[in-house]
């Protein structure tokens, strides 16, 4: 099979949660494609056991441009400061709202505090990440793009996921609603819905994934977890000129998990 050869040179791409997992793979791919990458996370060090250096250092070492910016996306003031900061590099052209947290808790046991913590990072982070980036793009007269990280749980119920799934369902509608209002302004907003991906966040539900295809039962999808690198292409496509007529869409990258 062939490969695409994306070119984002001259563009500034902000990736939240870019230190680890999917965000790291996306940041590295944008860096490889020539973008100036700002990795916005609460920790520069990667959670990935096989990552020998922080994302921005890995991009620079490969000949690209990148920096780390400390940012807690659950605080809208920090997200606004992040978008302002990106003006040092000409302003954000592509905003990837990817940072996310997960806790495994039965519906009956979720506390208001736990709900707010998970919702604050996943949903509020994506909402204001989209809003501030879009306002800045419009102010600068740039046809920018936002790509949000949703999840297969945006449309599929799963045990112990209710509060997390609520945040991902919210991201689906943040993406669609923002796309509707921002299309006339030239800003596209899309989402990627990963299925199970082999990252640190997933450790909590790994056993559940093991049970995805119980022996002796009709085989279902997905038959394996993805590597983070297998997600990156969807983000680059949605952020690219090749997707110029695609907005409000969620691209499922889930090994077919949602088709059943
Ligand atoms: P991960 O834990 O490997 O990476 C998440 C990154 O987000 C980390 O670097 C972490 O430090 C950062 N982060 C956490 N809270 C933050 C905050 N408040 N502000 C800024 N950064 C913060 O997880 P991942 O699997 O790479 O997850 C990335 C996204 O993909 C999340 O939105 C997650 O919900 C989503 N997702 C993951 C899977 C999966 O199976 N791994 C499936 C569907 C969706």
From TrEMBL:
Pfam families assigned to the protein according to its UniProt record, in alphabetical order: adh_short_C2
Domain of life according to the entry: Archaea
GO molecular function, one term: quinone binding
UniProt keyword annotations, A-Z: Oxidoreductase
The keyword Oxidoreductase belongs to this UniProt entry's keyword annotation: yes
InterPro entries: NAD(P)-bd_dom_sf, Sc_DH/Rdtase_CS, SDR_fam
GO BP: fatty acid biosynthetic process
UniProt similarity note: Belongs to the short-chain dehydrogenases/reductases (SDR) family.
Entry-linked NCBIfam families: PRK07231.1
Protein name as annotated: NAD(P)-dependent dehydrogenase, short-chain alcohol dehydrogenase family
